[in-house]
Amino acid sequence: MKDLEHVLPVDQDPVDHERTTPNAVSNKADSNTQSHKASEQALAAARAARYQAGTSNNFGRYLWPSCALILLLVVNLVLDANFFSITYQDERLYGSLIDILNRCAPVALLAIGMSLVIATGGIDLSVGAVMAIAGAVCANLLLVPDLSVFTVIMAGLTVGVLAGVINGALVSYLAIQPIVATLLLMVAGRGVAQLINQGQIVTFQNDAFAFMGVGNWLGLPTPIWLVIGMLLLCQLLLRRTALGLFIETVGCNASASRYLGINDKGIKLFAYAVAGLCAGLAGMISAADIQGSDANNAGLWLELDAILAVVIGGAALTGGRFSLLLSVIGALIIQTLATTIIVSGLPAKFNLLIKALVILMVLLLQSEKFRQQCKALLLMNKKGAV
Amino acid sequence: MFTQRYLPLWITASLLVLLFTVGAVQFEGFGSLRVVVNLFSDNAFLLITAIGMTLVIISGGIDLSVGSVIALSGVAASVLISEYQWHPLAAFAVILPLGTLFGALMGAIIYNYRLQPFIVTLAGMFLARGLATTLSEQSLEIDHPFYDFVSDFGFELSGGAWLDLSTMIFAGILLLSILLMQYSRFGTNIYALGGNEQSAQLMGVPVKRTTITIYAVSSLLATVAGIIFTFYTFSGYALAAVGVELDVIAAVVIGGTLLTGGRGFVAGTVLGVLLMGVIQTYITFDGSLSSWWTKIVIGLLLFFFIVLQKVLSGKSTAHA
User: Are A201 and A82 a contacting pair, CB within 8 Å?
Assistant: First the structure.
């Protein structure tokens, strides 16, 4: 079933995906629509294909997630008039907004990596476990005397990239389904992390490393800076070079992009490696936050939150389109939602329930058929009113 | 019987026998009927859930919600029995149809709105877990004469082994599902759907009805598993059975079912769960091995079977 859905969007307009430059895609789409001027369907298909290829100038793509975030923030303002107030003390900004930004950092980092993986048509279930492994490795290395923090951080990042490369190799070179290939590390990874920690919660005292989780720089907590840095780095790397376009091309149609001369396997490997790198960084942040490594609970279920953030950001799970900024907004929405539930005074136990309902709404709104049904319902109401 | 189709099944079965023999030689008391029967009764809820998951995966889908549904059904049962003083059978009569409805709704959303099963059942997972925590955050104890009756019910086998009700329920469900998959039209439809949905539709398979039924059955079996889990623990807890969906999916893959759908056996899945159970028993008997080795070994096994599947399916396409 999954394969089928993967094929469907490509079938809508196969021509578009064979061009890689944005101009060529839109030109092709335009000439397509000219030749089928009468057919509205072709127009819609071309628009969908441009949308899929990420070259659409459609601001609606940015509109809906941003609206949702603003709506949530407004709800918070109504619930708590002081919600937007930010104070400055002890060389740091304090306030609910800063808190949301700070807390969503691990999910936002994971979401950045996950966007790339999902854009290639894959999925990475292992990021939570990779976080646990990176945290465990760093915590144990910090206990080794005479080892600089820089080395420890590099080791953590290397572990992340290594895990990503394993995932990527399984997906691209062994052609294993992404869900299964990454399930492997998701199951085994936590075992490996426990093995490294020997089943204990390893704690450490290292101010330099803890700075990554609890420190602040220029008045903002470090995790926020790390997210901003990663976002900028990836954005420059992907959108200032053709790499981002290649990733989307591979996600649209891997074999077509291979015929174009794109190294589709290498691109997939790269996407998983970046996801692993982000997971490693997120793992270090959460380890630095609690000054210890808990192999059982570090990053538990965060892979699902990260996938959710990417989906809320409007990326199709079938691949072919991504926006790093939107994924980060998705992560912000998830965190704001959690904060809203706390601010509103509802018991925390409703957190999951509300989250589930929001996911369902987002999913249904992404479905063309559901939108048409809603439209039909609205029209019917209007007719009834007249 | 020894065709390529059955090869993964044979490999899993041989591994199971091999590991069991190694255990029996190494440790006293490992190779007893008691250990075998306990393997079934301890894993009954996993086995039942895995049967449902096999159906879903053969049809080319996936169901991530089963673990949460187990917890939800356990919590709902304990709330009805302990807080509202219902008779357990009355509680089960309410919970089972509701569980089925939950799955049917997910199936309907997947089919009608053409959404990926992965993400829809992920939402279902959050929803069921959320409902369970909303019902009760604390672990609720069940204290009812019926539960005492259930735990006493069973047959003594030779060597002090005890065949309990959970195992019997599992055996019944296993028999029914094998018959269903091998000899009924519904079973054939599931295989056809997993092979290729478009072809299945063209051949006249009622795709909509089949999809909805598959997810309904999976949730129903998870609900049954949740009830059986309460027989085992005498309580319902909203955070029970976390991560069971992963164990179950792993067992299905180890049992030789193709994750892309269209190929696999319910019996293979049972072997897969048992293999995982034997690994756990082995580690418990050994005592010096730590519990995390279970996860690592299962991960390695998964890797082995996935590569095996790849090799096998690569061969079959080359022949075709």
Answer: no
Closest CA of chain B from A67, distance in Å: 22
Entry pTM: 0.82
Chain B closest CA to A188's CA: distance in Å?
Answer: 5
Give the tens place of pLDDT for each residue, B229-274: 999 888 888 888 888 888 899 899 889 888 888 888 999 999 999 9
Q: Which of B143-147, B149-153, B188-192 has the highest mean pLDDT?
A: B188-192
Residues belonging to chain B: 320
pLDDT tens digits along A58-73: 566 777 788 888 888 8
A121 phi, psi to nearest 5 deg = 90, 10
Q: Residue B160 has what DSSP assignment?
A: G
* Chain-chain contact of B302 with A179 (C-beta, under 8 angstroms): no
Cα distance between residue B129 and residue A75, in whole Å:
25
Amino acid of residue A226: L
Rounded Cα distance between A221 and A201, Å, is 25
| ipTM score for this prediction | 0.80
User: What are the C-alpha distances in Å from A94 to residues A87, B114, B141, B287?
Assistant: 5, 44, 44, 50
Q: Please state, in angstroms and rounded to a whole number, the distance separating the CA atoms of residues A358 and B44.
A: 34
Backbone angles phi, psi at A202, to 5 degrees: -90, 125
Q: Tell me the C-alpha distance between A315 and A199, whole Å.
A: 38
